[in-house]
Amino acid sequence: MVVENSNLINLKMTNMKKYIMLVSALLFIITLWVRCTDFPVDEDGLLITTRSECYVSNFELLGKDYQTVRTKAAAIDTVAQTINVEVFYGTDLKNLWPQFSLITDAKLDPKITSFVDFSDLTKPKQWTVISGNRQVRKTYTVNVSVQVKP
Q1: Using one digit for the tens of pLDDT, what is the confidence trace for 101-129?
Q2: CATH architecture for segment(s) 56-146
Q3: DSSP symbols for 72-130
C-alpha cells in the first residue's frame, strides 16, 4: 500500500513538472513574440522609440589618464551644431577620449571605441547624433583649441 502511494506521488510529480515546463515554454515564446513586435530594436540592439529630439547636452574630453583636459566647460551650440572646447597647454592631442551626453534614446555615429587624434586643429572632428526614432540626424563639429602658454 505504501509503495503504491509512493509511485502515485512520483507519477503526479512527473506530470506536474511536465505541466510547469510546458507553461514556462509557452510564456517564454509569447514574451519573445510581444517583445519583437511591439518594441523594435536597431542594428546595435538599441530600442527604437518615437522620440525625434536629437542633440548633445554635455561634452567631456579626457586624456590618457581618463582625467579631464578641458580648461572650462565646452560651449555647445545646438543650433549651429558645434562644440568648442579648450584644452590645457601641453595636452597630448593624439590621445583624447571624447564623451558625449545625448538626449534620451539618441545614439552617436561613429561610435567612440578608443582614443581619438585631435592633433590637426585645422580639421575638426565630426560625429552625428541620431534621434530615438532613427529619423533625425544632426552632425556636430568638435573644435578643439589649446590654452595659451601660461
Answers
A1: 999 999 999 999 999 999 999 999 999 99
A2: Sandwich (2.60)
A3: S--EEETTTTEEEEEE-TT--TTSBEEEEEESTT-EEES---S-B----TTS-EEEEEE
